[in-house]
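the two lines:
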Amino acid sequence: MVDLAWPDPNDCSILGKRTPRIDGPDKTTGRAKYTYDINRPRMLWAKFATCPYGRAKVATLDTSAAEAMPGVVAVEVIAPVGTECKVHFQEVACVAAESEEVAREAARRIKVTWEVLEPCVSDDDVEMAGNKAKKGKEQLTDGFDAALAGAAVVSETEVGCSILTHCCLESHGSMVEVAEQDGKTAVTAWSSTQAVSGVGGEFASAIGVEGSQVHVICQHMGGGFGSKFGADLWGALAARLAKKTGRPVKVMLERDMEIALAGSRPSAFATMRVGVKDDGEIVAWESAAWGSGGNTGGMGAPGLPYVFGNIPHKKTQTTPIFTNSGNARAWRAPNHPQMCLLTMAALSDAAAELGMDELEFFRKNLGLTARADVYREELAIAAERIGWAKKWIPRGEQKGVVRRGLGLAMHTWGGGPHTSNVQCTLHPDGAVEIRCGTQDLGVGARTAIAVVAAETFGLPLEKITVLIGDNRYPQSDGSGGSTTIGAISTATRDACVKAVNQMLAAVAPELNAPAEQLVAKEGMVRAAGSTAGGLPFADACRRIGAQPIVTMGTTQRGNGMSSSQVGGVQMAEVEVDCETGIIRVVKMVAVQDVGRIIDLLTTESQVRGALIMGVCAALYEERVMDPTTGALLNPDLEFYKLAGIADVGELDVHMMQTDEHLKRGVIGIGEPPAISPMAAISNAVANAIGARVKRCPMTPDRVLAALKA
Amino acid sequence: MGQPEQPESASSVSRRGFLKGVGATALATGALAQSGLAATALAPRTANAEPPAAPPVPLFGPAPVAVKLDINGKVRELRLEPRVTLLDALRNHLDLTGAKKVCDRATCGACTVLMDGKTVYACTVLAVEAQGKKIETVEGLAEAHGGNAPIQKCFVANDAQQCGFCTPGFVMACEGFRRGHAGASREEVLEGLGGNLCRCGTYHGVANAVLDVLDAAKGGK
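prediction for all of em together
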């Protein structure tokens, strides 16, 4: 019999090793079909007419020219006369037409006149935002003033980061088909979603059918990062237009709407003071923070100070600003990267003010974190890998044109599993099928399921068929909060262990051994520990009879299979040209606490990807709004800048995999490594040039301004 | 990468100018007489100078026209509006959806295909312009190698993909680079692949995939 518990790592043939993703060949050859790629007979394309201002009221609206255009099949008004649009590119009307070109042109022919209203897009300036800035209550701990007054050194820091967008390469959208079958409406919704099992209800309610009538499919999706949990207005429109026209309708956002509306990460700025003793011990923290996540304000948990939450005396205050910009959505570790930047920058500046090595300063204060031992070990490993002792030069000591710097940051995350259900079908010919209503955002969900099943059945990977991305498979929660891998891996293990044990019981009499002693390994079913005799797996499965074994598994918690809470340390080495202000990332080191790894190759890819996203945030990307008109000034990939392949430097990833880590079970790590990079790079730049660049992305002009200040 | 040569049958009007002229002006007025009127509409408008005398420009459309494309070694005949891009012809008319639409403005490279062996952004080539050229797509590259070309295998082995939406374009950019840069260094690889963007952050794997495929080619000789 096979135990539910994860097998001993030394006994594993594939679990925890480097396994190339099983859908890799589909993705590299173009066979993988994303929502955007679904073409159906008689399909219509839908495109939008949008608001050209940051804030304006629809005064008149005339869709007749669009409706009269040959090839236009339906026009749906979204913002009737009198509607106040609150953000540039907000949807006014939607046209469904025979071709993409006609739909786009017809949308342009929708005539709207506007009553233009004053927008507020000043997310970085509390005074300019006026009454759109909602000053929060001050939080004060006893003895704060005395502690700050008694500090040997009080450092001051002002730093922040701009609003980012998720910028999924596959834009948001759906392709919906509504058919009448046997007197009943059947809806098929291909949707680029992070929540295959949960999103069907939105399509159902959009056209007044029941959830059971909606079939959701998402075999592949081109990035979500927290922004694709719902069907959104765009999915609902696809359903409404499909019902209205009786034809399949594809609604995929164009890049400008994607950048404007389809999710953003709130900005965050703060002025901070840190009080420290002579020996580097932090005694007091003061912060006033502000920022915006659009119409919803922003500035949620976690608060300040980040990671070093146990600083004894604190005074904090936050001011969310409500702006006319596309709303925030969960963005890969919501609010953590921003709070990490603010905190780590302030602490780094305190170390510099004191004249102390940054690494030594952080180490000295680990008692103020919740995971001192974890961080201590990781700091040592990271320092070794980046060569901290050899390369460290105190801040401000370099005078050349090109200066090098080191910086570090630390982060924390949960990563416990959500709820997933998995069905395992073991056929009498030995074929294995796993069904789960999860989705693969690019993490490698399919591969993780296949790895666990292959390990459990003792089969090679290619013998496992994984079926995901369909709401007709067993329910699996949305992919957010790094919760997926812990859930689908433990649920798969549960289902497969049940199936293999039923098979072992059926074959035991023939092998003259009690089922308890049998295992399935290396394609054979035989007594544990023996290397001879037994039956090939497929032959053993024939003994189960004509019917397949079908089992259900569910997320395993509290039994060592999964866990949560990780810490990570990252260090950055940068080079700054003080004449041009251009920063080059030389090297990033990520040391990541994690539980048991299912697939080391895709896990490392996740961490490298997170580092690269952090480089983008630190140096390149931001949403730029015009304060006068409220217009989004960079709604394209030419000016909404992402790092290219030559911009990211050397990326060194170290996953913590000691026996102690393995014992914790599986923990998701999609988000945590994306938290620290921006802070580590900001600190490295401050170390190099002797001044804090006040805002990320640290564009050349901002670097030069910091040098001049 | 040089500007693709104009096919003899196509105009010398710039792509964007052509799109703009035909899309906004020509279609708005409904039917458009073939040469004279359109040439005026497309000519640069300067206050004082006469437009320079240009050779007669062959024009298409605005109604759908017959377009013959050589894609992955097969001639495909379509009727397309002249403003249809090569990318939309592939994706929307031939169901070759490997090349992706992401920026639609020649920035990100997700739509990269090979045209006469050179990498082009298919979102910024008109289908009518691509006539007479040999177009290779990511699907064709796989087919030509029994379902999986060496560069595609190296992408998988190096996990050079996450969500995979930039991947087909990156594969074609790498294939185009590989053909012209035997023995390229890592620095040359990084420079040569600057025209493609990835959001998930797969660059490390992509660079290693190209280096592996270049290495394998060296070993084979």
